[in-house]
## 1
Amino acid sequence: MRILVADTFPEASLTELTELGNECFYRPDTGSEQLSEALSGCEVLVVRSTRVPAAVLDNTDTLRLVIRAGSGTNTIDRAAASRNGVHVCNVPGRNATAVAELAFALLLALDRQIADNVADLRAGRWDKRRYSRARGIHGRRVGVLGLGGIGLEFAARAAAFGTHVHAIENPERGQPASDRASAIGVEFVRNLDELARTCDVLSLHLPLTETTRNLVDRDLLAQVPPGAIILNTSRGELVDEDALIEAMETKGVRAGIDVFTAEPEASAGSIDSPLAGHPNVYGTHHIGASTEQAQQAVASEVVRMIDAFDAGTVLHC
Ligand code: MLT
């Protein structure tokens, strides 16, 4: 098969794809504007940050499979894919540990104001008193929204740090408490409002759907305790960003954010988001899944999926 890999991908996995008899076109800087041309004659497309809009899917007669090398498929126009007979698959679970690690790193960093600390010290300033007011993590109530693979990994880390972990069932799937959640000691609360009222850390681990869009809105933020921490390593659109800024300004809410609504598609450039420069935000560049371990695990699964597809089986659709 002819395969276009439109984002960075480990070399060993590209070699494997070629050894399996495929013809691989590795164009890691292909943006959505260049996709149609780059896709010419390809049956399989592998993307990570590159968006796949309807215009691309409506203009190809060879494409049969799009693989998003991550868990979310919200960057791909699924309706257009389905009307053009193109399968859209994701790679669930393989980057869960990496994303949970980043969410937890943001929590620790916010509590100890690590980024401000480092910036001050680098500038030659010594201000020990300013940095002596951390609340600490142990004993805090941490609310986890979404207990899929990433949410569970995050919950396990939070529990290991001695927090009380609370969660709601996935509002979308009515997901029942899993054995793993019980083993971690997760306590389920009745609804989102209760979670917001009682937890001073809220971590989002839900896919972007019409139900979850703006889930963290003005009403919900009105209920979180002053000084609460919101962690978003899922999708920017889960949060009403204006409402979050308001909560930061009126009640000292702080946020660890890896994902933004106005996220650039290209790997380098600039970001136009009021959250990125806000002093109450520790923001990162949508790098939750960006560890060598995670990217290798995702790539190995992509190779397995393409091989299976060649043999007539569609995995993870
Ligand atoms: C995901 O959907 O798992 C992440 O967005 C993937 C990524 O950034 O690589």
## 2
Amino acid sequence: GFRCGIVGLPNVGKSTLFNALTETQAAQAANYPFCTIEPNEGRVAVPDDRLDTIAKIGGSAKIIETQLSFVDIAGLVRGASKGEGLGNQFLANIRETDAIVHVLRCFEDDDITHVEGKVDPIADAETVEMELMLADLESLEKRVPNLAKKAAQGDKEAKAAAAVLGQALDLLREGKPARLTVPRDEEEDRLFKQAQLLTAKPVLYVCNVEEDAASEGNAFSARVFEKAKSENASAVIVSAAIEAELVTMPVEERAEYLEALGLAEAGLARIIRAGYELLGLITFFTVGPKEARAWTVTKGSKAPQAAGAIHTDFEKGFIRAETMAYADYVQFNGEAGAKEAGKWRSEGKEYVTQDGDIMLFRFNV
Ligand code: GDP
């Protein structure tokens, strides 16, 4: 599955958010009674209104959401790249994630100690990023010269790797994240991803604001949004305190509480969805009398890969995918109507799965 690592300096609200995420899950999704994989890792359901609509039209007895994992990665302090605090463990944990959810303290509270002495989310973000950049820098300063040597001996792959990682190294030396590297072709792209640089991972900034700023944000979060925009990252506003309160309430009362605060939905739902987008993921659906179910694949996945998300045998024995778009399924009131309207297609192994596709796979066993 896909994993988002929650990082940030101490005392910014990481654990509060992580606990709220896993508790929401425990309360709402009866489909996954065991949601905490490890003490610091939890799987959450990705909220998707389309699933309810499909289940209604298709007469499915239940719905099953698709999931995303969140890992609470504690232990980042200044100097982590030099092994301070839980430094090395921390960096290793980040390496194993697909995206970074970076929590920033955007609330004032004299009772909660700030490790750097004052509330300044931009400075905090830079402190964390600096550690990640230093770790990448150190690894590339060893790797790139080795690759260059091999390239000089005629190794083509090493030549491509040296080119793309050399570009990343230049960026890091200028104090910029490796994320801004532009691979020149598919091979470079592959080698760049394979290098698993920490600062190459997509980033979502979570601005943890005080309760009364939860809908509009505050001056701190405004600056974080500017920063995110300038570096191709995303940002959301959340009040961890509200989220922590919400999960203690009965599900029926939550909507009213949110409305009173001027919020359309819980911040956690926004984090989950933003994480999903950040990872470049799309959803396809399967529907039957037993269940309507959402599945996750990366953008650009072909039909056999989508089949493989359900079962490896489906991918191995893939023959065809029968599919219709979500909008057609709704407009023509289900499979029979969509078929009549000619919206039901039979697609082969080159078909690129689209977000919202309703799929049925034909395969050999
Ligand atoms: P972590 O070290 O980043 O995991 O931070 P925690 O989630 O443990 O939070 C540190 C402290 O800040 C705890 O006492 C929380 O109750 C408090 N805290 C977290 N979020 C908020 C918030 O939005 N507002 C206020 N006032 N306190 C918060």
## 3
Amino acid sequence: MAKITVSKLKKMKQEGEKIAALTAYDASFSGLFEEQGVHVLLVGDSMGMVLQGGYDTLAVTNQDIAYHTRCVRAGAKDTFVIADLPFMTYSNPADACNNAAELMRAGANMVKLEGGEWLYPAIELLTQQGIPVCGHLGLTPQSVHVFGGFKIQGRTNEAAEKMINDAKALEAAGAQLLVLECIPSELAKAITDAISIPTIGIGAGKETDGQILVMHDLVGISAGYIPKFSKNFLLETGNMPAAVKKYIDDVQSGQFPGPEHEFN
Ligand code: KIV
Ligand code: NA
């Protein structure tokens, strides 16, 4: 498969070809994912939950992400890798640059941070310094204690309008990709239509330009709890490579996510 770049991702959006993304944390799985043709891998701070066993993502450090980014890159030389900037590593533009630089040196192609318009200066500076940025709106887990739990976001008209404006601000600041997590499908569609950069959804319906799943959810081993928006692809395929292949195929054909996986 041809190497994925930000230009290729944008072209996929324009041509309506769906992007299939997965989280990855080590070389064995990143190699398998690359072999099956996953377009984008995310070294997510979800590792605080699925690797470290925490209630939330807040304990994850920039060093943790850098370490796992090195592991993922070692197994997948050609795949587009995004690395999460963890909680409190981008409170100001200078911190964002220093911490993002560590992740880029570890092998990332892009960094992801959570939040809306307030991130404008950080995103602008990162992009000026040569670091591509992915935004993240909706249920942004680093704010779980402000939300009062892992709850669907953007349900009121006011919140939906604010999120659309945030998405536009992120794009204007220079962001080249946007993750939308746990929002109503109609809002995800409105955001996807309102901006020209690709959107990658999780619990955001089928109208986003791509999908992402936490790899543990894809194989049904997320500590006894499978989120509504997720699907165990191992059940119907019986082995790991086939499960990943089925996930990619179902995302690209529009079969996943189905109506049972979305919020309205
Ligand atoms: O950390 C993570 O895995 C994420 C995805 C769920 C988008 O941010
Ligand atoms: Na994350």
## 4
Amino acid sequence: MSNFVSVTRDNDVAVVTIDNPPVNALSFHVREPLMQALVALRDDASVAAIVIACAGRTFVAGADITEFGKPMQPPELRAIVAMLETIAKPTVAAIHGTALGGGLELALGCHFRVADAGAKLGLPEVKLGLLPGGGGTVRLPRLVGPVKALKMIVSGTPIGAEEAHAAGLVDAIFEGDLPTHTVNFARELARKGGPFTPVRDRDDRLKETDLAAFDAEMADLARKARGLEAPIACAQAVRNAVTLPFDEALAAERALFAGLVASDQSRAQRHLFFAEREAAKVPGKDIVKRRIARVGVIGAGTMGGGIAMAFANGGFSVTLLETSEEALQRGLGTIEKNYAVSVSRGSLTEDTKRQRLAQFKGSTDYADLAGCDLIVEAVFENMAVKKEVFGKLDAVARPGAILATNTSYLDINEIAASVSRPQDVVGLHFFSPANVMKLLEIVRADKTAPDALATVVDLARRIGKVAVVVGVCHGFVGNRMLAARGSESEELLLEGATPSQIDKAFTDFGWPMGPFQMGDLAGLDIGWRNRKARGQTAVIADTLCEQGRFGQKAGRGFYLYETGARSGIPDPEVEALIRDKAAERGIEPRAIGADEIIERTLYPLVNEGAKILEEGIAARASDIDVVWVNGYGFPIGKGGPMFWAGLEGAARIVERLEHWHQRTGKDVFKPAPRLKAMAETGSWEAGATG
Ligand code: 3H9
């Protein structure tokens, strides 16, 4: 017996309970007593059946991720599962909450799996840059068939109990008291008698595989993997389960797992797993949060509408405010259309759509916001306009209501100073489309009250966002670093690179698209307007805008778009324009390689991140990674810019920045002291020693 694994008896049925809060991960201190308990029960003639269950809120949620990268202490999970399969009496896993990764693999070692109706089962290892390494790739196909197993393992998305039951993964679903039902189920099995076939010996579903169709599916996956190794390895392992004898397939899975767990990609993805959870932590965990039931959103344009949908999807009532009835109806109409698209895609039922729409109340009168607990403004990005809106809110909002701005750049301290209750003002910087994009930058102003901050951090989680708390500066973390990344784009063009060469360097790096493709998608007029407001210029982009080349929506921008096409084709006119502008400046075009493109775009990105850390705008380097992966498409396999700096070598980044600084004299290239410190100590922490 241990604190983490206990055995109780209900007459001839033994119940092994794992109790390792918060998620019952299979840490060494669980595996060891679990193995001992199972061996003892196997050899105990008075035990007719064995149930494996968990205490707390969930079944085993997987291996202990913190143990990866260190020597694994025996017994390993695969040894426990192998031992389980030597037991002749019936073994049953009782699943509540989530059976994930190693948790599901443990359950696959049992003869039977039962679940409560709310349980979820899955193998999400791929999201950590891994594959199921406890036999999951070899056993799951034997129960649900190789095609379904391939989908589950490569996507990493868990399925519900009903679906698992229909697929043959779960043998029974019980309502109510799961432990009692499971004990009765196990006793009945023992009474009827065996033999009970372990999953490893069930081959029928494998025979149904059409290998050609399977290979076509695998080829498609490889195309979509964008340089990630884990999805391909997952698919290979499932294929092995079909084509190789059980033990050989298991050995191959083990070898693939060993390769992945030691890879930079998996290290990067594990870093992000913990980084996302860290980012959601703010000091003062026990602060009493404010009650939020009704949310007001001002502005029913693309941004406001998306924000309103994000809150409605999270279960909140929403009052949507516009300046005119016409604009309001247009906004509500778009929301309805968006939900209708979800229904047509099958991701929403007609009933849920109706419920969601019933959560909205439209208004053109600020007085209707008086009942709201949180009000988010998403109006035109202009300080005077924002202050006017906040003035009106100050007059109508109830005391204690949180007043939030969705500004992407503006000084929130200045907005807060314009109202009588700066302690209630916070920034909620959503990313477009706000109902889809995961990232939420929560901007804490100088006077934001700790309970207001804690409330919005909690709220972000409730509406399914990945939240990062940041400080006030122009562009906060994401857009400020984006400006640094883009500061050399025009220069690279003028010196001889084409938009498609630069974009290709980015997509080869793993980004979903390059900066010019992204500019065309977002609309080049947005940056143009911002530059004009700040008295800045960008010779190529400005000229394109003057010619009405606003990007995809205009059919032409940096690229040409055929009607309805999402990807553009290079436009000789744009390349000629670039050469003309270069000639006007006396710049002789030269060949520019991908390395130089990365050095002049991504090294300044990292450098700006270091400055942001120095200034305390972000609390941790890993927060910056969370922003960039979730909001800007930084490749997850590289862990975000600050993690990648470690892979790339901070010393090399410093050296090359110094080179470019000498050549151009530009501030973006001047290595930040924190980056230099990282190069010496290997850590982003202030005051770390090497
Ligand atoms: C695996 O199993 C490999 C095997 O195939 C092969 C082995 C040979 N380990 O997410 P939460 C911590 S790979 C260690 O906020 P929720 C988490 O960091 C694994 N720690 O809760 C957090 O700590 P803190 C495959 C873990 O209710 C706390 O628990 N499994 C682990 O929102 C609460 O987490 C997975 O990938 C872990 N496995 O969501 C599942 N899991 O409080 C990963 C969580 O200090 N886990 N922690 O910040 C999840 O998806 C979610 O945690 C879960 C609960 C859905 C279970």
